[in-house]
Design brief:
alpha/beta, eight-stranded parallel β-sheet, 8 strands
């Protein structure tokens, strides 16, 4: 048994019209220990109440705005610093272990090396404060081949170099298994050799970004056993779109596969 703490991204699964409290209670009964959100707006208080009532945790949330217009653009740093500070405070108040951040799309005339340097400069403005509050900043790895053309942090090695450049144990990656399968594969070796730089995981099947079952090419049983073998103690969150099954069946099956 992998014994990984499993979570799920609410926007991928909650049916329209279903009350948050009912949804959270249902997934808690399946064995999930947490949920993940991507917003910091007026809905946050309602979500916290529903999550706590179901005995769940908040695994992750967005740290700043915009996947495409991110930290690799220095003119964004003032805005993102302000958004980070507000998000770090919120995360600390509600015991959220990590905030998602984004490199942004490649900027015309900017090298990947300068993009990395710009991201590090932006993160270094707030990483000390994140450390004081006990919150990780997780740079998300996304594929630039299918889903996010032009996105800069599309290589695990680029992301690991960013973590080393920032030089704080609070700077980590959100290792999205689906995205990195598309870009480079070699999933288990990359994870196990670099687990100290990983603060969160996302799952989905490839191709199609659907259920992580035997209809696709990733062996999630093996991947989750490998992750568990490293001693990783944070969260793995499902971020797929149910295709052949309804949302409840898809989440139950995903939980069982990743808990095998």
């Amino acid at each position: 048994m992998s014994e990984i703490k499993q979570s799920l991204c609410i926007p991928c699964f909650k049916p329209e019209g279903m009350e948050l409290a009912d949804f959270c209670g249902t997934v808690a009964d399946m064995g999930y220990s947490a949920v993940e959100i991507w917003f910091r707006d007026e809905r946050f208080g309602e979500l916290v109440e529903a999550v706590r009532s179901a005995g769940l945790q908040l695994a992750s949330m967005a740290g700043h705005e915009s996947i495409e217009d991110g930290l690799n653009k220095r003119s964004n740093h003032d805005r993102i610093e302000s958004e980070f500070i507000a998000s770090i405070d919120l995360a600390a108040e509600h015991n959220v272990p990590g905030l998602i951040c984004f490199s942004g799309k490649r900027n015309e005339g900017q090298s990947d090396e300068d993009g990395l340097t710009a991201c590090a400069e932006g993160i270094q403005r707030v990483i000390g404060y994140a450390g004081e509050k006990g919150v990780n900043l997780n740079m998300e790895l996304l594929n630039s081949k299918v889903d996010h053309p032009g996105y800069q942090c599309d290589s695990s090695e680029w992301g690991f170099r960013l973590c080393r450049r920032v030089g704080s144990p609070r700077m980590k990656l959100l290792y999205d298994i689906y995205h990195m399968q598309i870009m480079e594969g070699d999933i288990i070796r990359t994870i196990t050799e670099n687990i100290e730089h990983i603060g969160h995981f996302h799952t989905a099947g490839n191709p199609g970004r659907n259920e992580p079952d035997d209809s696709q090419e990733l062996n999630y049983r093996g991947i989750c056993r490998a992750i568990a073998g490293t001693g990783y103690d944070l969260y793995l969150a499902h971020e797929f779109g149910p295709h052949a099954k309804n949302w409840e069946e898809a989440l139950r099956d995903a939980f069982d596969i990743c808990n095998d």
